[in-house]
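SEQUENCE-TO-STRUCTURE ENTRY
===========================

Backbone structure tokens: a row of integers, each naming the local backbone shape at its residue.

Task: work out the structure tokens from the sequence, keeping to the layout shown below.
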Amino acid sequence: MLIRCVKAKHGIKGDRRDTTQYETPRSHSELFDQAKELNEQISNIQFDVCSELDGPSNLSAFLSREGVSKYHTGSVNLFVHALLDSISQTVGEKANILSNRARSAQAFSLKPLEILYAEEKFRDRQDNDRLISLLSQLRHGVVSVFHNNPYLHLSFLDYLDGSSFDIFAVDSKTLSIVPAFRSSTVALMRLCEAIDNEFEDGVIKQTTFRRPTSSDFQGSLDGTS
């Protein structure tokens, strides 16, 4: 089965999204490969599932980055079991990673997360300033910057429920988020989604905390990496 994209909403991260309707539908892999080359983000797609790219549609549906899905026409069974089940599994896995991360007063333990990037995103102060600027524009929180060169250390306070997080650029390809004593799963999800949507997509994983040092950025500073 192939996924044929009919319409997509996309744009440069942090900028206004534009909707493109394709005269010739294209495969989803072609669409996402092109977006990656142009440093664009796919916000949502209207797509067909078919046996071949120019063949008849077995399912026509809509899917957004936020997990909003809409059935249009075709196989309900395919929509439920191929799409909704997959979305449910992905959301469940992400919720498990983001849950119960608040710092413990009893054990004084840290439960950080790392966002890993395939390419260097924190090479210099300008890259750090870009993340600071994007987070500062979020209406539901405020940013305090403690360190910005060569490594980044800031805190983010979520106005909606009082959650707070320390954020470090651990190295040029890694962002570490350390929840404070008061931090909810919902607030952490909001923060991670904002970074994904407005800064850069990365892979989230559990880790142990380590404070970055200038040696973590030495290659980037010397222009040797």
